[in-house]
């Protein structure tokens, strides 16, 4: 409810948020769909001039107001679906026989998420992880400069990418020799790959998620819902719906669970513990939640502000790229400049270090993905004009 009120206040007062932060009352004429703030004409020009935000999609306040009105109708429908699902589950539970007491006990909602680990061993393990340059994939040229917003690896080793500046999805052999592209009906924000290699792509500005058959290069389903990041579980699609929280959806498009207190606006990924992890571009936090138990754990990414691409390996280590804090001495900063590093964060969030830097060839990264099967770390470099593949050193030695 608080998130909705904030949006209503922005629309009602037409307030420019950057100016408001400086105690100025300036009318907002535009809305950045990725920063989630209103902008006056001067701040809009500055926003477009910064390297980090020049490719963000900005719409008029009138268009944003119309979008919110449409979203409110969608939320009402979702609430009806959730209520219906809860009633079905209640009936099902009442008709279920008591479980065998010898079976494994299901954790209760009051049980804490287990983030415990031996910190000394964890730190030593982090320090031992090293990556070595493996290969570069040069992206197929588009009408505009490519901005790879997200990327994944399919079961056949093909790399799949979404280009937010040319509204397309690309697939490439890992050697980068053969590439295909498929035009999308809107600007893609995030990409999720199902176990059968079906792609789900969020089109935030269009207020929908599309399901794509990558091999046939065709859209076979559209779901009306506004979201940012998204990720598949074996049975469901989890959506990061910004101000309205994390939502879980079945394959029919019916929403069955909502965690409204988790209001991220970035990427989603599944951790090694099975929990859903969410980052927020508007803060330096990563949030972990269990959709079924509605439990939430938050930890801070100490050296990064406004995290962008985020991924996790099979041991629970998080890899992230974002804007470096201006107060940090790791990287010199010129205004709002993207980092030239990939950060590694322990599963508890207590430890972090730089795992790849400019010396390794990292330059203005946007998206990142860890391929657990092949132990490769893929980095969308130069805001996505190329994809650099790094491989764990111990893999080279085998």
Automatic annotation (TrEMBL):
SUPFAM superfamilies: NHL repeat. This is B box-type domain-containing protein. InterPro entries: 6-blade_b-propeller_TolB-like, Znf_B-box. Residues 14-61 form the B box-type domain. Keywords: Metal-binding, Zinc, Zinc-finger. One of its GO terms (molecular function) is zinc ion binding. Residues 79-118 are annotated as: Disordered.
């Amino acid at each position: 409810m608080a998130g909705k009120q904030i949006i209503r206040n922005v629309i009602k007062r037409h307030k420019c948020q950057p100016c408001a932060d400086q105690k100025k009352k300036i009318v907002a004429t535009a809305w950045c769909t990725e920063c989630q703030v209103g902008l006056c004409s001067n701040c809009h020009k500055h926003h477009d001039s910064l390297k980090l935000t020049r490719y963000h999609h900005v719409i008029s306040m009138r268009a944003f107001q119309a979008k919110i009105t449409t979203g409110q109708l969608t939320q009402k429908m979702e609430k009806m679906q959730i209520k219906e699902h809860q009633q079905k589950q209640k009936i099902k539970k009442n008709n279920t026989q008591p479980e065998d007491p010898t079976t494994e006990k299901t954790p209760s909602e009051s049980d804490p998420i287990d983030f415990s680990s031996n910190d000394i061993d964890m730190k030593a393990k982090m320090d031992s992880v090293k990556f070595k340059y493996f290969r570069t994939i040069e992206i197929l040229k588009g009408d505009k400069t490519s901005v790879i917003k997200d990327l994944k690896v399919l079961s056949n080793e093909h790399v799949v990418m979404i280009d937010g500046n040319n509204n397309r999805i690309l697939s490439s052999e890992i050697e980068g020799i053969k590439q295909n592209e498929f035009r999308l009906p809107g600007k893609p924000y995030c990409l999720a790959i199902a176990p059968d290699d079906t792609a789900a792509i969020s089109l935030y500005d269009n207020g929908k998620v599309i399901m794509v058959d990558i091999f046939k290069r065709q859209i076979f389903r559209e779901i009306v819902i506004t979201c940012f990041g998204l990720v598949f579980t074996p049975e469901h699609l989890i959506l990061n719906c910004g101000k309205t929280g994390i939502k879980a959806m079945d394959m029919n498009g019916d929403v069955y669970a909502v965690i409204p207190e988790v209001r991220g606006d970035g990427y989603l990924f599944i951790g090694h513990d099975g929990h859903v992890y969410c980052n927020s571009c508007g803060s330096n936090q990563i949030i972990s939640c269990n959709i079924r138990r509605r439990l939430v754990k938050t930890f801070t990414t100490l050296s990064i502000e406004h995290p962008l691409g985020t991924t996790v390996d099979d041991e629970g280590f998080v890899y992230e790229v974002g804007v470096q804090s201006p107060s940090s001495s790791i990287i010199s900063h010129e205004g709002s400049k993207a980092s030239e590093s990939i950060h590694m964060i322990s599963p508890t969030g207590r430890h972090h270090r730089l795992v790849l830097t400019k010396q390794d060839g990292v330059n203005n990264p946007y998206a990142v993905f860890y391929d657990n099967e092949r132990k490769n770390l893929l980095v969308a470099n130069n805001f996505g004009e190329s994809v650099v593949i790094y491989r764990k050193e111990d893999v080279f030695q085998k």
